[in-house]
């Protein structure tokens, strides 16, 4: 049958050429002749003197490498901070207010607070000339602080005295004078300056209070703010429940009025339900009946 195959398929079954014989490059182990094994006494004089041997190289451990990188990073950040402090100049800011002694600094501002909201809250102390909210250069998002310039310096002092701790958009703001252009040698918090002791070091050095006032001499004010915050939170929790009860009562009054007009008798059953938080609310059940005229038919 194979003789009928085409030449291209017959070439697949053709035998290959025989492998060419090459003599071995070396003798086999059993064909080699050796003089046997000898000691190393003849080579001892060639060894290096132990006094001239350098100490073995010690590798760096993982912990040492981590500490080295941490130290290098700290030095780099310290050098970068020193350069930024030398280059920083508060008077060269183009977006700053015109008069630093009439400018009020507002910190801890809610990120959703707008300029119009700040104007409504602080315009009660006097006419406002300019409001500048700080934004991030790269992302454009607000940083949480702003500057307000008043038309008169006395209005700024009034706001500085009475507006500190004011609650705006569920956050208590911190009010202070502008210190960058009024205090010599002042540097912002990002450059290692600023007020407060919350970022000095560890928990044994840092203070839990942050602001312009020392809590040791103003404990009563802090307690009053805490009580106001608790009362505000409680009112916010109770408002939805109270509004729901008023809506249900109003809906029941409207239903009874409509039923009286069309001649339908409405039976209102009131139940008192005690919730998990001890609050009570009323639930009304209504049942409609046919008019008496229809029942007689």
UniProtKB/TrEMBL annotation:
Keywords: mRNA processing, Nucleus, Ribonucleoprotein, RNA-binding
Annotated signal sequence range: none
Predominant cellular place of this UniProt entry's protein: nucleus
PROSITE patterns in the cross-refs: RRM
Biased composition, class Gly residues, residue ranges: 191-200
GO (cellular component) term, any one: U2-type prespliceosome
Subcellular localization(s) per the UniProt record: Nucleus speckle; Nucleus, Nucleoplasm
Identification of the protein by name: U1 small nuclear ribonucleoprotein 70 kDa
Top-level taxonomy: Eukaryota, Metazoa, Echinodermata, Eleutherozoa, Echinozoa
GO molecular function, one term: U1 snRNA binding
Biased composition (Basic residues): 281-291
GO biological process, one term: mRNA splicing, via spliceosome
Disordered: annotated span: 45-65, 187-253, 273-297
Domain RRM: 102-180
Domain of life: Eukaryota
Residue stretches of biased makeup (Basic and acidic residues): 206-253
């Amino acid at each position: 049958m194979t003789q009928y195959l085409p030449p291209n398929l017959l070439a697949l079954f053709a035998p290959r050429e025989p492998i060419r014989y090459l003599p071995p490059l070396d003798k086999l182990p059993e064909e080699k002749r050796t003089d046997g094994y000898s000691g190393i006494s003849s080579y001892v004089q060639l060894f290096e003197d132990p006094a001239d041997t350098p100490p073995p190289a010690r590798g760096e451990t993982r912990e040492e490498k981590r500490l080295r990188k941490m130290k290098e990073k700290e030095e780099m950040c310290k050098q970068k901070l020193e350069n930024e402090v030398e280059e920083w100049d508060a008077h060269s800011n183009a977006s700053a207010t015109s008069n630093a002694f009439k400018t009020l600094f507002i910190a801890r501002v809610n990120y959703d607070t707008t300029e119009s909201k700040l104007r409504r809250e602080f315009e009660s102390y006097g006419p406002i000339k300019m409001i500048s909210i700080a934004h991030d250069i790269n992302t454009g998002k607000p940083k949480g602080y702003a500057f307000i310039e008043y038309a008169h310096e006395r209005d700024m002092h009034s706001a500085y005295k009475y507006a500190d701790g004011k609650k705006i958009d569920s956050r208590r703001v911190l009010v202070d004078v502008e210190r960058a252009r009024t205090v010599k040698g002042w540097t912002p918090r990002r450059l290692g300056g600023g007020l407060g002791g919350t970022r000095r070091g560890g928990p044994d050095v840092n203070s839990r209070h942050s602001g312009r006032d020392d809590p040791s001499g103003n404990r009563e004010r802090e307690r009053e703010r805490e009580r106001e915050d608790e009362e505000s939170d409680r009112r916010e929790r109770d408002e939805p429940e109270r509004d729901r009860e008023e809506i249900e009562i109003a809906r029941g009054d409207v239903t009874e009025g409509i039923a009286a007009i069309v001649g339908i008798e409405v039976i209102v059953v009131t139940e008192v339900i005690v919730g998990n938080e001890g609050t009570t609310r009323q639930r009304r059940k209504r049942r409609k009946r046919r008019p008496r005229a229809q029942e007689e038919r």
